[in-house]
Amino acid sequence: MKISILVPENSVMQAIADPQYLFSAVNQFMAVAGKKPIFNVQLVGIKKEVKINDGLFSINPSHLLKDVNSTDLVIIPALFGDMKTAIASNKKFLPWIKEQYEKGAEVASLCVGAFLLASTGLLDGKKCSTHWGFQNEFREMFPNVEVIDGSIITEEYRLYSSGGANSYWNLLLHLVEKYTDRQTAILASKYFAIDIDRDSQSTFSMFQGQKNHNDESVKLAQDYIDKNVQEKMTIDELADFVCLGRRSFERRFKLATNNSVLEYINRVKIEFAKRSFEISRKNINEVMYDVGYTDTKSFRTIFKKFTGLTPIEYRNKYNKMAVN
Q1: Beta strand 159-162 with 106-109: parallel, antiparallel or unpaired?
Q2: What is the residue extent of each domain of the chain?
Q3: What is the dotted CATH code of the domain comprising 2-191?
Q4: How far apart are CA 257 and CA 264, in angstroms?
């Protein structure tokens, strides 16, 4: 099986080296078991030397793009810096990626490599994962692609994408399992010390209120929510505060932020609660009251919805000084 790992400009070195290392290691596992190597791994670039990290590092692709006529799997590594600039500097890859897909190849993007994959048009009308910190920018640039919040791996029509940062290891292990077997994937996960079955990046995400819009009334409401996280508030109260009718306010809020009003309020409160669990010695009830919740079951349900962990699990995971 031929695997082509792209070597773009403005790329993250680890997102090139890690898949190369993983698939090569699996070949070694096969050899030790007396089997033939399954993967033919190649680094594919537009030129013979690609400098990254402002020239601090150089990568020498094993193959040039013009010489690779077919492949079975294309891996698009994470990009670095301004996404529009990164896409522009790598536009020569786009028709080649699309051509390989049309020939039957599968395509996998790692983290914000999803921006380059989406630029091919292959993701239009489909689902996708990317780093949680880039989801709003991605939605603005590619409105025809459905971003799945918090997802580690998304797979649809031979197109794969992964969540943020080290989440791409879970996608790589998923591909190893698909092309070999579960036992080999588990061996690889142990070798690289990766949790093979993690399926959400929500535990690690930080909610950053979507304020990159021009609706001043919605921004006013957002500022009020941010500054009054300890208060209970209703949609009617917020609509009155910004002098809008409720229906108009809800419609404009959703359009501007990609969140309903209630979802935004809850996400701001949960983000505040997360920070409190991380840096204070407060117990669960104290934090719950600090962010305006009075029902333990409701707080626990909403907290787990957005983080993937219960409040106790989150505190114990991220605050080693916490007392039970």
Answers
A1: parallel
A2: 2-191, 216-318
A3: 3.40.50.880
A4: 8
| Average pLDDT score over the chain | 87
Query: 130 or 165: which carries more pLDDT confidence?
Result: 130
CB distance 65 to 75 below 8 Å: no
Q: Measuring CA to CA, which residue among 73, 97, 28, 75 is closest to residue 179?
A: 73
- CA dist 300 and 309 (Å) reads 9
Residues 6+ apart with CB under 8 A from 95: none
Does domain 216-318 fall into CATH 1.10.1760.20?
no
Whether the predicted pLDDT of 323 surpasses 50: no
CA 215 to CA 244: how far, in whole Å?
Answer: 12
Cα dihedral sign, 281-283-288-294: negative
Looking at residue 183, its pLDDT comes to: 82
Phi then psi dihedrals of residue 75, to 5 deg: -110, 120
In the block, residue with structure tokens 């950053």: 208
Structure token pair of residue 58? 């150089």
Distances (CA, A) of 299 to 92, 273, 277, 287, 302: 49, 10, 14, 10, 5
> pTM to 2 decimals?
0.66
Identify which of 203, 171, 205 has the alpha carbon closest to the alpha carbon of residue 188.
Answer: 171
* 150: phi then psi, degrees, rounded to nearest 5: 75, 0
Encode pLDDT of 210-224 as tens digits: 777 889 999 999 999
**pLDDT higher than threshold 50 for residue 280:** yes
Per-residue model confidence as pLDDT tens digits over 143-183: 999 888 666 778 788 888 887 767 788 888 888 888 888 78
Can you name the residues that pair with 74 across neighbouring β-strands? 4, 107
Mean pLDDT value of segment 259-275: 89
Q: Which of 220, 124, 205, 120 is nearest to 164 (CA)?
A: 205
Residues in the chain: 324
